[in-house]
Amino acid sequence: MVAARLSKLPAHRPSGKQANLPPSLGDTAKMLKVSERSIKNAKKVERQGAPGLIEKVELGKVAVSTAADVAELPKDELHHAHFDVKGVFR
Fold it and tell me: For the whole model, what pTM was predicted?
């Protein structure tokens, strides 16, 4: 989730570079030692996930990849999605 937020930082001018660009997805992934897919999943959770789902990811109770799958469920099916301690569908 941190990586998703970091990738949305406003443009800045790093020393030695001429362009005023936001950090790329690849740069953010390398900086935080996560995969680009993890960042994409986190962005999906932030965009489409319910506040409770986002909170569970932030607390480490649900994996961001699992939460991204849940965030894609139609809203009428969300009440059927239950998680065990490891964040796996039951």
Answer: 0.69
